[in-house]
Amino acid sequence: MVKHVVMYSGGIGSWAAAKRVIDKHGKDNVTPLFTDTLIEDEDLYRFLKQTADNFGCELVWLKDGRNPWEVFKDVRWIGNSRIAQCSHLLKQKVARKWVDANCNPDETTLYVGIDWSEMHRLNSIVKHWAPYKVEAPMSEEPYLDKHQMIRQLRDIGIKTPRLYELGFSHNNCGGFCVRAGQAHFLNLLKTMPERYKHHEQKEQEMREYLGRDDVSILTRTVDGEEQTFTLRQLREEWESGLGLQVDLFDLGGCGCFAQYDEGPQGIESTEQPSVSGGRT
Prior knowledge:
With 280 residues, this protein is an alpha/beta fold. It has a domain at 4-165: Rossmann fold (3-Layer(aba) Sandwich). Helices cover 40% and strands 11% of the residues. Helix 3 (68-75) packs across helix 4, helix 8 (182-191) packs across helix 9 and helix 8 (182-191) crosses helix 10 (231-239). The longest helix has 18 residues, at 85-102. The chain is globular, with a radius of gyration of 19 Å.
């Protein structure tokens, strides 16, 4: 039975966590587990393979078969910062199925890549992975920030995932994340405009598919009222010079294994309230 399973997202935090687990328990007792959303950055795949080879561990590579936009269509809901079924269906559910099939809760410990600055997330993770034991190695001494983790990566001759070099805070979903905020999407627009426009088009297709013009990934507050704020609006306002209205501090964040939500009526919910998304 597998005894030490690292939720291996392809981010620097999960890499550093995996390294600590392997240093403590040995490579033969550790399994990095990756769940593919099918919209990952090409360089993430290079990073996964290179680091797995360096660890000397067998990397378990799973996928549901859908990408986030296909999930949104299936559940008739545009993911946002409040409810992201892509996390539940493409990450959590896929990983849980494999863990239950290959692990014994009495003998298995699961590991996540959150660090000491994200400890508020741990209780939710522990709760939803019960009865498995869950640990967060990077929340323990010696405490490191992401820059220090990246330096450790460079010290062993592995190139930093390019999304970090482009200013993104995580290396998941190709720089796209429905939990992200205005500033994060603006960075995607600046650094990978074609990728941004792909997601902009997909958001518009979903609005048309749902027959709703009052839903979007992002929101913003105007005169005290929360309003939809589409990716198209964000791009057009920035390109027109009206970008001063964009919240440059609204980064949001990815938390696929730290937030568990299935919609107010479960993952098959078909009713999406108006003004979805945005920061709360």
